[in-house]
Specification:
Blueprint (H helix, E strand, L loop, with lengths): L2 H8 L6 H12 L8 H22 L5 H8 L5 H6 L3 H8 L4 E9 L2 E11 L2 E9 L14 E5 L14 E7 L2 E9 L8 E11 L2 E12 L4 E11 L4 E10 L4 E9 L5 E9 L4 E15 L2 E10 L8 E9 L5 E4 L5 E5 L4 E11 L2 E9 L7 H14 E5 L18 E2 L3 E6 L4 E7 L14 E5 L8 E2 L3 E4 L6
Helix pairs in contact: 2-3
């Protein structure tokens, strides 16, 4: 077979783009823990792919399909392959990822930031930290960052709400990816994001970076349509849909009478049957008005299809009920939540040395509960009870509800007495990590959280018409 025949035969071969990219990525980013059977197979596959590339390139011939793979796979795309970030891969192919080369060494540990992208409402930053981070206090293979953005401090940093971190072991260190929800209502196409890493695995250093962030301007579909739910004393207003290169974001406002209720969109379906899923929410504004509590949120969604004329939204509501409480100066009593129709019948309260035992039954539960829902109830009971020093019960912060140290116990061990009659027993350790100083029954309040036993309820779907030319 001459060279022309060989070329013709090879051009008939289908090149598996994703598998080749995956093999290349694995080869480039293979970790240093060599020797296990599974990892040997992966590395062998990567080596084979590299060998094929080497042979074809050395011979002066590159198959057109293979050439297309190489052209559309910038080196920075390999890191997104490693983190299974399809959006990052697609953006890299569109040259919409900013490649970085910022490295700082503090106390012997080097951090290098390698890329950033901003699409829809998500900001991604990738980087590398060398293996000297293993000299910190974490277990080998664990990497944790104490980080803030835009000169914010501690947990009050809005960039930390919904932030995720992914870590991969590679030669000489660890690759990482941070993903953050853009925390502000109005977008900037280009801005600089200051980053301060205070410590890594307990190693202090103050690694300071200033990262350029860019995004092409979002297209906006204004809707501004409201749907009321009088029986739930709430309503939802769809405000707009923002679309970037790879994702869209839905902005909507909810209004409800009860502050703790949670109304949200679970999915949407367009007039062609395409289903849209929703991701993390960014809370843009909260306010109390005459008709109730208002919240405006932005949530990531599947990219809006072109040439559609309407969307049907499927909302849900989770009902909140206030905690009910009883002073433990009596052994039997009943707590009820009128709003959700559930009750707690306490049959006995017994102090046995450093243990407090509460025997009780749940009333008002739906009949024929599935085994799965029964398991959820059993689990939630471990957290539904609080024992609180009566002198401190009124000092619990409603925005960060937790009993003051040494004046409350929030965990218990649940024993099932009779699942069919929802009969249980909860045991509290009075001398555990959580405790109440100078404990006695007459000065202790039992609080019970009914809301944890209520499932989300589907609300009536509603349809909105989209302006002509929406995408």
């Amino acid at each position: 077979m001459d060279n022309k025949e060989l070329k013709g035969a090879v051009e008939q071969i289908s090149v598996p783009k994703e598998k080749v990219l995956h093999a290349i990525s694995k080869g480039i980013n293979r970790n240093g823990n060599k020797g296990t059977g599974k990892k040997k197979k992966i590395l062998a596959g990567a080596a084979s792919a590299a060998a094929v590339l080497g042979i074809t390139i050395a011979s002066g011939f590159v198959h057109p399909a293979m050439n297309n793979v190489l052209a559309n796979a910038p080196l920075i795309g390999g890191i997104f392959q490693e983190f299974s970030d399809q959006r990052g891969i697609d953006l890299a192919n569109q040259n919409a990822v900013t490649e970085l080369n910022q490295a700082i060494t503090k106390n012997g540990v080097t951090v290098k930031l390698t890329s950033a992208y901003f699409d829809g409402s998500v900001v991604s930053i990738t980087g590398f930290v060398d293996d000297r981070v293993e000299n910190g206090r974490n277990e080998k293979g664990e990497v944790s960052f104490d980080v803030n953005f835009e000169d914010n401090k501690g947990d009050n940093d809005p960039w930390l709400n919904g932030k995720s971190t992914d870590i991969r072991k590679v030669d000489n260190g660890y690759n990482f990816q941070w993903k953050m929800e853009y925390p502000y209502e109005s977008f900037k196409e280009n801005f600089s994001l200051p980053i301060t890493i205070h410590n890594i695995n307990g190693i202090k250093g103050e690694w300071n970076f200033d990262i350029p962030i860019r995004q092409d301007q979002n297209s906006t579909v204004a809707i501004d349509q409201e749907q009321k739910y009088p029986d739930k004393r709430g309503k939802i207003r769809i405000k707009e849909i923002l679309t970037a290169k790879e994702t869209s974001s839905l902005v909507y406002e909810t209004s409800k009478k009860y502050k703790g209720d949670d109304m949200r969109i679970s999915k949407a379906v367009d007039n062609k049957g395409n289903v849209y899923r929703f991701g993390n929410q960014t809370r843009l504004e909260d306010s109390e008005q005459e008709d109730g509590y208002h919240s405006t949120v932005r949530t990531e969604m599947t990219k809006l299809k072109a040439d559609i004329t309407s969307l049907t939204f499927y909302p849900q509501i989770s009902i909140a009920a206030p905690r009910e409480e009883q002073l433990l100066d009596k052994k039997t009593f009943t707590l009820k939540s009128e709003r959700i129709g559930l009750g707690l019948q306490v049959n006995d309260v017994m102090q046995q040395g450093d243990k407090l035992v509460v025997d009780y039954q749940l009333t008002g539960l739906p009949e024929n509960l599935s085994d799965h829902k029964k398991e959820i109830i059993n689990h939630n009971l471990e957290y539904a009870f609080w024992l609180v020093d009566k002198n401190y019960a009124s000092k619990i912060d409603p925005d960060n509800p937790f009993p003051p140290k040494n004046h409350g116990i929030t965990l218990n061990k649940v024993t099932i007495i009779d699942q069919a009659t929802a009969h249980y027993r909860s045991t509290f350790d009075l001398n555990g990590e959580e405790k109440i100083q100078d404990f006695n029954l007459e000065d202790t309040v039992l609080q019970f959280e009914f809301s944890s036993f209520v499932s989300s309820e589907d609300l009536e779907p509603f349809t909105v018409e989209l302006p002509a030319g929406s995408e």
